[in-house]
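Figure 2 data, in text form.
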Amino acid sequence: MIGRNDAHADVEAARSRLRSALERHESLVIAFSGGVDSALLARAARDVLGDRMLAVIASSPSLADAEEADAIEFLRSHAIPFERIVTDELENEAYAANGPDRCYHCKRELFTMLREIAIERGFAAVAYGANADDGGDYRPGAKAAEEMAVVAPLAEAGIGKQAVRDLARALGLPIWDKPSSPCLASRIPYYERVTREKLAQIERAERALKSRGFRVCRVRHRGDSASIEVPLEDHPRIRSEAVWPGLVAEIRAAGFRAATLDESGFRSGRLNDALEQRTEDGKGS
């Protein structure tokens, strides 16, 4: 069993490693998504670099309005300098076609814009919130980061997912336990086109879930149907007469003809299941 003193020592060691990683950079423009990773990175960079850092929020149809509002509120409440830019990855056919490399094209556009800001303002590098555990996932966006020399101080410091949350909590960041929330396009199966209409449907349907207290949730776009994922422990409540009828009505109002509850529960990364099966079947690379 790890004692309280050991846990505290681990957090302090992680904090020291992150500070050292940030000190290696004269100044940074940070891609800020509002998730725990980028929030910790932005706060730590502010503490270490002061005004020699700038957080940038990319507003796009793939980012829910509530997520953007929360991200801006976090930055303002922590006196972190930031700017908002507008990206439109849907204009890129390679992104809209929604192949397995969709994230690559999104991140390539984002990092290109951030690099332009860095060059214009005299910042030394562009950074993003990849952590030390992200290397084990399928993340084509990391390829774009590597190609464009975007740095990842959390990964450089050897800070993984749990350490990110532990350190964020130690720093008093209110979003230390915020559920992961990938972009809205991640709810659309690969090879099915990403459109503004689909993204808006998903956003509205997930808003209906969150308004009913389901913090961890996904709405997968299955053509005319919405497949709802919440943790198994939330199934009794979501199925109740007090919740399900009204929820389905809102999801239909969002543009879906039907809504179903995924009996297997919530699981992050489910989108890649079909990709792995496609590869095993010899239909993809």
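Caption note: Residues 91 and 195 are 10 Å apart (CA to CA).
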